[in-house]
Amino acid sequence: MNCFQAKLIEHGLKLERGPLQTLQINVGRKCNQTCGHCHVDAAPWRTEMMDGPTAGRIARWIQTHRPAVLDITGGAPELSEHFRFFVETGRASGCHVIDRCNLTIIETTGYAWLPEYLAAQQVEVIASLPCYIEENVNAQRGQGVFAKSIRALKKLNAAGYGTRLPLNLVYNPLGAKLPPAQTELELDYKKELRGRYGIEFSSLFTITNQPIARFADDLRERGALETYFDLLARSFNPATVENLMCRSTLSVGWRGEVYDCDFNQMLGMQLTEANPGGHGRTSSSETATTATGSSARKLFLWDVTPACLDGREVATGRHCLACTAGCGSSCTGALEKEVPAIV
Prior knowledge:
The chain has one domain (3-324): TIM Barrel, CATH 3.20.20. The chain is 31% helix and 12% strand. The chain is built from 11 helices and 10 strands. It has helices at 3-10, 52-65, 83-92, 114-120, 134-141, 145-158, 182-197, 213-221, 225-234, 262-266, 306-309, and strands spanning 22-26, 69-73, 96-101, 124-128, 167-171, 203-206, 249-252, 258-259, 282-283, 289-290. The strands form 2 sheets. The protein has an 8-stranded mixed β-sheet. The protein starts with a helix and ends in a 34-residue tail after the last helix.
């Protein structure tokens, strides 16, 4: 039993999947940036990208099952040759489509078409901007990133984002700490970005840094990884569990494999075929392993339906503490409004 499961038991809670709302597709690990907090470990030199046959099989699943939301991520998802194919497949299937954009891709040669294209397809943009202060952004995401991000935001505004189309920004803390209250920080962001740069956006999402991949490596090198886990455990908020994204989101990897969430995907915690009479339960302290004595087959998107996922126990590890700490954290930001006191 991992420490996150112990927290659930302590509070009399279970974590099971509910009805599927969001299909989140990770089209690959290639990115035009190398961010210090990146849980995907994405970078310009990564080569893992979805191929055509896999994209086709996923598109047919979307057309058949028509999830309410299609969330396209990466890496920089726009670098995928199948990005527009997924956008247009999702829109034609009645999905609300999300592009998780790092903003600087818009300033990259060959991608100036993005704002107008996304606006024409009525795609929601969720964009990374971990601070409204230039020095903090460049420290986390690389020199010059802030200036490029501001230029990209202005282009998105010119295309109608932040006014008639949804443009949501993402805040990640700089370092091993929890985000502040989302509502208050959003007011600061809007005041500063509007006042300094004339930029408008819809909402701010605060997301806790996940202690996996590049961020975990940095904490480990500084001898701070266990201290961070202790902070997350002490900040566990049982009120966040009901609305965790793993209950309503299915994460798909670049090979078509499926996971309960994007973080589990990065740890290789792939969903497995349910045993006869069971739910294929998995658990781990760091990565998922099948229950003792089981012999379960790893699942791909085309092996599952929304109905067969409903009620299935979510695979967990101690990294899940990041999603339940403080106000909680998900792909759409905080789960609770008030920051509880740390015990």
